[in-house]
Design a protein that fits this description.
The complex is a heterodimer of chains A (568) and B (336). Chain A is of the alpha+beta class. Helix content of chain A is 41%, strand content 17%. In chain A, the strands form 5 sheets. Chain A has a 5-stranded mixed sheet with strand order 1-2-5-4-3. Chain B has 13 helices and 2 strands, in the order αααααααββαααααα. In chain B, helix 6 runs antiparallel to helix 8 and helix 6 runs parallel beside helix 13. Chain B is globular, with a radius of gyration of 21 Å. Classes of the chains: A alpha+beta (568), B mainly alpha (336). The interface between A and B is medium-sized, with 30 and 28 residues.
Amino acid sequence: MTAAKGVLQRAAVAASVETVESLGAVCRVSAADARKALVALRDSDISLGFLVDYFGIDTGEAVDIVYHLRSFARDEELFVKAAHDYGSVLTSVWDIFPAALMPERETAELFGLTLAGHPNPKRLLTTDGCPAYLLKSLEVRGADEVRNRAAQHVDPTALDRTVSSLAESVAQEPGSASGKTPLPVAEPGAAPLGLVRIPSGVDVENSEHLILNMGPQHPSTHGVLRLILELDGEEIVSGEAVIGYLHRGIEKLAESRRYSAVATLLDRADYVSGIHSELAFALATEKIAGIEVPRRASYLRCLLGELNRIASHITWYGPMGLDSGAMGQFLYTFRDREALLDILEDITGQRMMFNYVRPGGVLNDITTTAEAKIRTFLDDFAIHVEENAELLMGNEIFQARTQGVGVFDRKQALGFGLTGACLRGSGVDWDIRRDRPYAAYSELEFDVPVAEQGDVYARCQVRLEEMRQSARMIRQCIDGLPEGEHTAKVAKVLRPPVGESYAAVESPRGELGVHLVADGTDLPYRMRYRPPALYALQAGEALLPGLLIADAVVLMGSMDLILGEVDR
Amino acid sequence: MNPWLIAVLRFLAALGLMLLNGVVMIYMLRKVLGRLHIRLGPMDNGPWGMFQTVFDVLKLLTKEDPTPRVADKLLFFLAPVIVFVPSLMAYAVLPFSRTWVIVDLPYGLLFIFAVMSIIPLGILAAGWASNNKWSIIGAMRVVGSQVTYEVPMLLAALPVVMMAQSLSLSDIVAAQSGTFLWILPRWFAWNVPALVLFFIAGLIEAGQTPFDLAEAESELVAGFSTEYASMKFGLLFLAEFSNVFLFSALMVTLFFGGWQIPWVSPELTQPIAPVVFMLKIYLGIFFIMTIRGTLPRLRVDQMLATGWKILLPAALAWVMVTGFIIKFGQMFVGPR
C-alpha cells in the first residue's frame, strides 16, 4: 500500500496509510482533503476507480466517512476514512464517483450531517423529523421508537414540495444547469457519464409535461419502489426514484443484537436470497473472531447459497416476463421455485427467512431426504431452464423489447457501482466467488458468464447462464460433500476482539458486503450492509431520461431490485 | 308476425348471445391460460369451477359503483355504453347460416368495420373522463393503435372482397363453398398474405397480446379501465371479449368458409350451420388465447412501426397483386 501513500504525497494530501488486521489497507485523510485524495487515487496509476461502498461509522469522537475503493486492474482495495465532526458539512463526491449519489444522502440523514454540493440532497430513507439514529449518542432500541420520533415530525407538505420542485424543474429547459433549482435526477446521474439526452421531439416551449407517480403501489415495481416520472407523451424526460417505504433501520437494530441473532435481521433485508446476507455477516464475524470453519460447513454454505441463487434468479426471471407482458413465464418458474423452497425448508426449517448460516458454520446438517430432492430438482431444472430460455429469451418480441434498451457501457457500469450480473452484463469480468473466493468456491468448478452489450438482454443472458452454472455447482457440492462437523465450536455468546472487517459475497444481485466493527462486547459496534440493489437502483434511475414508460419497466426489472434490500 | 316484435326478438337474441359469449369466454380464458401455465384455473364453484364466471358477474352487479370525484361524470357514465353498443351492433350482420342472419346487409363487411371503429372513441372517452393519468395514457394508446390497424385491416379484407365480388358476408361465405384442385376446400385462407395481415391487424384491433397496450398491466396498471368498477367495468370487460369474438367470427367468415364444412354440401350442413360456425369461432378464440398466454407485449413505438411500416405497405401491395392475379385469371380461365 505504499503506492497509495506515494500517490497521496504527490497530490499534497496529508494522509496516513496503515494495514488493519482482517480488513486491509486503511488510509486516513482529513475531511477537507477527502475530495482531493479521492481524485488523486482515482486518476493515478493505481486507478482505484470503483467505489464499492460509502458509509459512516460513529467512532465516538467524530463520524468517520468510509470510502471503500477498489481497483479492478490491480485487484486492490483501499478504505479511505475521513473524520467529520458531528453536525458538520459533508461535501459530496458524486462528481468523482457517481456511485455515491444515494449512499451520500443516506449517510447524511442517518448521521445528522449536512450534505453540500449534492444535486438532490433530500432525505433518502427516512421521513422528515426522523432522528440521525446511527449516531451512538442516540439511544434508540427498536423500530418503534424511531417511528414514534418520526411521527412527531411528520410534515404533511413533504409530498407537495416534492411534486412542486419537480414542476419547477419542468419549467426549465432540460439539459441546462443555469436554473434556480437543479434538475432532480437527469442532471446528477447523467452529467459525469454523459447519460442524459434530451428526448427526441420535445417542444419545450409549448408542450406540457405530465408528472406521473409510478408506485409504490404499481404492478411492476416489485414491492414498494416509487418512481416520479416527468413525461412528454410516453417519453420520460426525467425520473426520480423515491425509496424508504420498507426502511426498518436494520443497521441500527444489528447494534443491539448478539452476533448469533443478526442473521434474522439480514434475512429480511434481501428476503429473496437470505442465505447470502447471512453468509456475508457470518464471514465478517469469523474474520474478526478468527474462527476456522469446517470444510463441510463451507460446502453446505455453497450448496445452500447456490440453491438460493437459483431460487432468487427465477424469481427475477418470471417477473421479467410479466414486465414485458409474457404472463406464462411467471408461472413456469414456480415449478422450480416450489421445489427449491421445499429443499430449503427441508434443510433449514424455513422457506424464506432461513436463519441458517451462523458464525462458525451452519445451523444443521443436510438431511437425507433433501439430498434426494436436490438430485430430482437438478434433473428437472436442466430441462426447465432450457424451456424457459427458449420461450422468453428466444422470443423475437422480447428481444426487440430488450436489446439496445437500458445500455450501460463499461465505464458507466463501474461509475455507478454496479455489481453482479449488471456489471458482468456490461463486459466487466468480475465475480467475487472466483476473484475473492469465500466458503468452498475455490474448490468448485464454474464459469463466470460475461456479456458485452450492457443492455437489458445482456443482463438477462448473464443471469440465465448463472442459473446453469449454479446447477453445476450444486451437483459438485452434493457429490463432493466432505465428512465432518457442520459447525465449529463457537462460544454461545460470541465476543469477537476489537477489530474491523469487510466480507463480501456474490449475492444474486451483486456484491453483498458486510462491514463489521467490533468493540469486544457481545454486540456489534457497527454493521454496514452494502446493498447491491441500491447501487443498481440509482444506476437505473440515471438511465431513465429518454426511455419510454414500457422501457422503464423493463429496465427496472432487469436491475433485479429487491426493495427490502434497497430500503433495509 | 309483427315486424317490430321480430326486430326486438332479434335484438334480444344478439344481446343474449353476446352476454353468454362473454361468460363462456371468460371461463374459457381462465381454463386455457390455466392449462398453459401449468395450473388448474378456477376449480371451486361448480364442477371444474364452471360457475365461477357466473358468480363473478353477480359480484360485479352487486358491487358499489363509485365515480371518481374529479371525473367527467356524464362521459364517465357514457363511455362503457359507447364501447358496448357498437360491439353489439356488429352481431347484426354475422351469418350463422344461410338464413340465420339478423340483418343480411348487402354491405355487411363495411357495416362491421364502420361500427367497430366507434369503439376506440368510447375507450378514449373512458380514459379522458376518468381523469386519471394511467387511463389517459392507455386511451391515447388506443387512439394511436386505431390509426395503425384500421387502414391495414380494411386493405387486408379487400382481396377477399375482390375474390368474392361482394361486401355481403353471406355472399362471401357462399363464394367459399366447394373445392378446387380436386381436394382443397375453396377457402379464401389460401390467400395467405391477406390472412396473415388481417390477423395481425385484428389482434391490434381486439387489443390482444402482443398488442394489449391499452391495458398493459405491467406498465399502465389497468390502462383506460383503471377507474372503472362494478358493472361499468363489466361492460368494458364484456365488450373486450365481444371484440375478440367478433374478430374471430370475421376471420372465420372471410377466410375459413363461414358456417360451411369443407367437402360437405351446404344443403347438408344447413341444419347444424350455427354450431359449425360457433365451433370455428371458438377454435379461433382458442388460438388467440394461446397467444395471449405466451407472448410478451410490443412497445408502443414498435406497434406503430409495425402498423405503418409493414402492415400498411404490405396490405396495399397485396391488394394490387391479388387484383392482377384475378384479372389474369379471368383472361385465361374466363370469369367465374
